[in-house]
Amino acid sequence: MNLLSSENMVLFSFALIVIAFLYSSVGHGGASGYLALMTIFAFPVAIMKPSALLLNLFVSSISFFFYYRMNYFRPKLFYPFAIASIPAAFLGGFVTLNNAAYKIILGIVLVFAALRLFGIFNFKEKEAVAINIPFALVIGFAIGLLSGMLGIGGGIILSPILLFLGWANIKESAAISGLFIFVNSFAGLLGFFLGGKTIPTESFYLVPIAVIGGVLGGFYGSGYFSNKTLKFVLGTVILIASVKLIFP
Predict the structure, then answer these.
(1) Strand segments (E) across 22-121
(2) Is a pLDDT exceeding 80 seen at residue 235?
(3) What is each CA distance from 64 to 105, 119, 144, 229, in whole angstroms?
(4) First to last CA, the chain
(5) Are 182 and 61 in contact (CB under 8 A)?
(6) In total, how many domains does the chain have?
(7) Is 206 inside any structural domain?
(8) Each residue's pLDDT tens digit, 1-16
C-alpha cells in the first residue's frame, strides 16, 4: 500500500482497529469512522467510498454474528427497512458525486456520527411500540440511498431512530443495524461495481486490520461493554474530519 509512509501506516492501522472495535461493539460496521480516518490521512475520494463499504461488509457481519447468537435479532423488525433500503443502496452505488458535493454531504453525516458518539443522540429505551410499516419503508429507502451514495451502511442513522420511536431496545437495535449495514453495503458495492467502477486493491489491504477490531468489539459488545473515554476521543476525531471536509 503506497498511500502512507511506514510510520503513518502503523498509526492508521492502530486507529482503524480502535474504530472497528468501537463500532462493532454497538452493532455497526464503522464506515463513518473509516471515512473520517481516511479524510484525516488524506486518502483520495476514489478510494474512500469503496473501502468504507468493503470494510463495512466484514465488520458488520462479525458484529451481527455475535448479537445474533445472543438472540437479540428481531427479523420482523428488520425486513421492512431492508426491503426498501437494498434497492435504494444499489441505486446510490451507481451515483458518483463530484468531489466537492461528496465532501460536504459526507461532512454533514460525520457531524451526526460524532454527536451520536458524544451521547447526544443516544436515546433512552422506551416501552415497546409496534412498528409502523409504511414509515419504516420510507426510512429504509432514504437511509439506503444515502448509504450507497456516500459509502456508509446507515446504522449510525437507523439505531437512534429505532430507539427514539420505541421499536427496539439497545441490544435489538444493534443486532438489526448490523445486518442492515451488511445488506446496504453489499448493495452499494454491487451498484458501484456494475456502474463500471472497480474496488481499488488498496481497499483489500485494510480488511484484516479492521477484522481484528471487529471481532473484539462484537465479542465484548454483545455481552456488556462501555468505554465513554474512547467514544469521546473517536467522536472528536470524526468531528475534526467533518470540519476538514466541509471547510477544506
Answers:
(1) none
(2) no
(3) 28, 22, 18, 24
(4) 25
(5) yes
(6) 1
(7) yes
(8) 566 677 788 899 999 9
- Which residue, among 117, 114, 120, 118, has the nearest Cα to 239 in the 3D structure? 114
CA distance 185 to 190: 8
Domain of residue 83 covers: 6-246
Contact (Cβ atoms closer than 8 angstroms) between residue 185 and residue 53: yes
- State the pTM of this model: 0.85
25: cell is: 461493539
**HSE of 51, CA atoms in CB hemisphere, 13 A:** 25
Task: Please give the C-alpha separations between residue 191 and each of 22, 90, 96, 118, 234, in angstroms, as whole numbers.
Answer: 28, 5, 11, 33, 30
d(CA 164, CA 86): 23
DSSP state letters, 174-236: HHHHHHHHHHHHHHHHHHHHHTT----HHHHHTHHHHHHHHHHHHHHHTT----HHHHHHHHH
Q: In this structure, is residue 1 part of a structural domain? A: no
